[in-house]
Amino acid sequence: MSLLDQLNNSGQTHLLIGGEWRESSDGNRIDVLDPSTADTLTSVASGNEDDALAAVESAATAQAAWAATSPRERATILDRAFQLMIDRKDELAQLVVQEMGKALPEAAGEVAYAAEFYRWYAGEAVRNLGSISTAPGGDKRIIAIGQPVGVSLLITPWNFPLAMATRKIGPAIAAGCTMILKPASDTPLSALALGQLMSDAGLPDGVLNILPSNRSSKVVPAILADDRVRMVSFTGSTEVGRTLLAEAAKTVVKTAMELGGNAPFIVCEDADIDAAIEGAMIAKMRNGGQSCIAANRFLVHEAVAGSFTEKLSAAMGGLKVGPGLEAGVELGPLINQSAQDDMIDSVATAVGSGSAVATGGETGRSPGFYFQPTVLADVAPDNPVLAREIFGPIAPVTTFSSDDEVIALANDTIYGLAAYLYTGDLARGMRISEAIEYGMVGINRGLISDPAAPFGGVKQSGVGREGAHEGMLEFMETKYIAADW
Ligand code: NAD
Q1: Mean pLDDT confidence for 90-97
Q2: 27, 184, 323, 413: which has the fewest Cβ within 10 Å?
Q3: Residue 284 domain-assigned?
Q4: Would you put residue 370 in left (φ > 0), alpha (ψ -120 to 50) or beta?
Q5: 149 and 177 in one domain?
Q6: Cα–Cα distance between 266 and 280 in angstroms, integer?
Q7: Is 389 in the pocket of ligand 1 (CB under 6 A)?
């Protein structure tokens, strides 16, 4: 039986509150679509404000006992959850494809990536060290200990429905926090599947509550207004992030914000062009371009722009597009109709401002929310398409002639999440990396995500880091105890 059938048959398309699967209190449900056909897959319960407060109550009730568990106990649960995800990777991958659309090999990659956050934080759980020191005046000892921040609200996007959830659940569990997870309305099923999996791994009832809702703008403020909630960890658009920062300010809730990006992919004239194409295909096309760290602007030295554009067009044009579960498919559909409309509009905007379509440019297939892999050539630096987060399979190519020029172009955005850089000269690569305003830089690499690395952005791409040791600190407070003995 598929995981989707299991969820449907066992009532696990409801809300998970205090270990119980419940309908929403007003019976409201959200239809979940298959993006490869636009047909409805199933529906899930959609929580309202009453359900949100019930979830807060459940998390708050579980908090003290959960914080008192030993780090080893929490680590053991995370280790078991890692193993369960690996054991169930085929069915989880299939579910991700069904609701999100990505090609099956990519979904399998996401399951492995998502599971690694549990393995990493199983290790971090037992390394919460703290410190003791003597004050400079010699009058006291300064003791600093880490404690869980408390009840946390986790809000995730649809593009990596498993990994964006485990990247928050893992450190929250390791730190000893209870939580309410609000997944994206387009992809609630993967999150709900994690609910049962975490329970099978031994997570006590009430530690992880899951609240799908298509009434986020009411439900989330209701949760943040409850002063038992001490943390909001959000991954999503900069626009919604700004709203949440304002909302969190009212009760001075701790925030971690992983927001949008506009990643430059810089190719210097001394780069290995074939390696740059290989990196470009990963940085642009991972998840069909629907990634916050997706290469959004190709900034290519004028001496190699012609050959780079030609080779990129051939590689992009050669991708097999189709339903994610079909054998051999490399690019699935976009998430929804609005995403497809955005691609149509991005191409029209770019072409309207003087750029040329080197390959693709059309939706290509129907039904389903498809868009052809597209390369745009002759994109002037002031073309408005370069200011948007494209979030799909479109690669605009712009040229530059000096390092100073490309640094200025790269920094000419409100975003500062990820950047990529190809050069044969590592010293030049380091110089440019230090001069560009980004939280993450890939030098001669198109893939930078790693659970052990601090992931996050500067400027309007966010506040805080996920993954690594830093990701766990987001879910902790430092308590200072002054002691004389
Ligand atoms: P989104 O901001 O529309 O939604 C994200 C989440 O916020 C969803 O769960 C949604 O239901 C919820 N939400 C929407 N409106 C809300 C409101 N008014 N109040 C409270 N919650 C609300 O983003 P999306 O379309 O799901 O995801 C794409 C965006 O996410 C892109 O901008 C992408 O760059 C960003 N993203 C960032 C990272 C990162 O790590 N920096 C990772 C993945 C995606």
Answers
A1: 98
A2: 27
A3: yes
A4: beta
A5: yes
A6: 10
A7: yes
